[in-house]
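Backbone-to-sequence.
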């Protein structure tokens, strides 16, 4: 698990647009990596739409957004198309990214315990260091809080 002030892990993954993304390829800009439980569910849709709506403001601050869940590439492609998402979604069915950022934990849904992604966001600076993390995220206002953490040019 990366610690604030330390380098982010070297990771790569397939994206919903059929490409491949590496964290290293995003060096030189701010990077927001947000983990969410499942495509097309209400909370995850609202979170994606909030990041989408603020995307121009993130780009003005030289920041890229990357969403990550365990959903398939096809699921990501459909979700991104339906929600008109301008940023990549990484498919992580083997949980490589999830484990690297320690976001898989026991959760309780309708009284049943299961292992799942705890909604979390990580801010990486242009040099590749983790500068801030948000865990157990509540969606309302979160995307704005992340944007506010990035220095304005």
């Amino acid at each position: 698990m990366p610690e604030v002030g330390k380098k982010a892990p070297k990771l790569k993954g397939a994206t919903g647009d059929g490409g491949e993304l590496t964290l290293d390829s995003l060096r030189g800009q701010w990077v927001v990596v947000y983990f969410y439980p499942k495509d097309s569910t209400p909370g995850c849709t609202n979170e994606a739409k909030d990041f989408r709506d603020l995307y121009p403001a993130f780009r003005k601050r030289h920041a890229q957004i990357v969403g990550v869940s365990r959903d398939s590439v096809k699921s990501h492609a459909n979700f991104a198309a339906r929600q008109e998402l301008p940023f990549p979604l990484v498919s992580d069915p083997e949980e490589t990214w999830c484990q690297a950022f320690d976001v898989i934990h026991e959760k309780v849904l309708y009284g049943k315990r299961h292992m799942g992604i705890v909604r979390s966001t990580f801010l990486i600076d242009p040099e590749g260091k983790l500068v801030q993390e948000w865990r157990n995220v509540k969606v309302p206002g979160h995307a704005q809080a992340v944007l506010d953490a990035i220095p304005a040019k």
